[in-house]
Predict the structure.
Amino acid sequence: MSQVENARVLKNGALIAFPTETVYGLGADAGNEKAVGRIYQVKGRPQDHPLILHIASINEITYWASSVREYALALAREFWPGPMTLIVKRSENAKDFVTGGQDTVGLRVPDHALALELLKECKKIGVHAIAAPSANRFGHVSPTTAAAVREEIGTYLSEQDLILDGGAAQVGLESTIIDCTGDAPQILRPGAITQPMIEKCTGMHINENSVSDIRVSGSLEKHYSPNAQVLLDVQATSGQGFIAPADIATPPGAIRLASPRTTDEFAQILYAALRDGDSQGLTTIAVIQPSGDGIAIAIRDRLMRASKGR
Ligand code: TXA
Ligand code: MG
C-alpha cells in the first residue's frame, strides 16, 4: 500500500508499526484518544508514560509546543531529521493522553524515507503527528526489523492494523532524549546524538549531575531486557550466548551471537543479537561492552538496564 493509503488507515484509528532510523515505532494518530489508548493496550504499558510525537518537519513544533527555547530550535535545525527527541512545553493540542498528564511533550522528526513520507501524507489529511513508542511489549528489547515487531506484538494487533517494512534500522538504539525546558539542555536518555554534539551545537555546557524531575520510562532501571539473563564483561561459559567486538575470540562452547567490527555496528546489531539469543532459548548471554565515548555510552546504558532485567 502507498503512504497515501496508510495515512488514511491511521486517520481511521488503526495502529501502524513503522520503521525509523533508531528502532521501529508503534504509531497512532496523536490527536485520536481511542487510537492512542490502543498503543498502551498492545504494549502492556502503564498509562502515565508519555509518548514521543513523530512529526514531518520542524514546522510542526509550533502546533505541539507552547514555547520553545532558542537552543532547542538550534538542535532541531541541526539534527532533524535524526535520532533526537526534544522535550518541550506542550501546547493545548498535546493532550494528557499522549503526554501522560505532564505539561511537556516529546517531539522528533525521524530520519527514514518511508516514515517521512507517511508523516507528510498524514499532515495533508490533518494528522499532525504520529504518537509512537518503540514497538515492543513494555520492558522488552526494542525491535529493529519488521519481523521483530511481528514477533513482539503481532498477536496483539487487530485486522486493520499494519506493520510496515522499511528494512533493518540504521542506528539500532533509541533516540537521544533531551529535556529542553530548562535554561540549558539536559540529556534524559543517551543515544546517537551525543553530549559533545549537543554542546557544540548549542554552545552550552551540559551539567551531567543535575537531576531532572521529568519521567522517562526508558530510564527505569529494568528495561530493554531480553528473556535471557544478560551478564556484562565476563567470558561466556559453554552453552551461553556471547556478544563481543570482532577482535575478541569466542570462548570454548559459547554461542556467538554477534561480532561487531565497529561501535556503530555494535549499536546496529545489539538488539537483534539479544533477540537471537532468546529465540535459541539461551538462558544467559554474556556481553563484552564497547569502550569509549560516542554511541558506546548509549550502548552501555541500555546493556546496564538489560542486565537488571530479571
Ligand atoms: O528512537 C526512539 O525514540 C523510538 C522511535 C520509535 O522514535 N521511540 C522510543 O519511544 O524509544 P519509547 O516510548 O519506547 O521511549 C520514549 C521515552 C519514554 O521513556 C518516555 O517516557 C519518554 O521518551 N518521553 C516521551 N515524552 C516525554 C515527555 N514529555 N517527558 C519526558 N519523557 C518523555
Ligand atoms: Mg521503548
User: Anything to note?
Assistant: The chain has two domains: 3-202, 229-306.
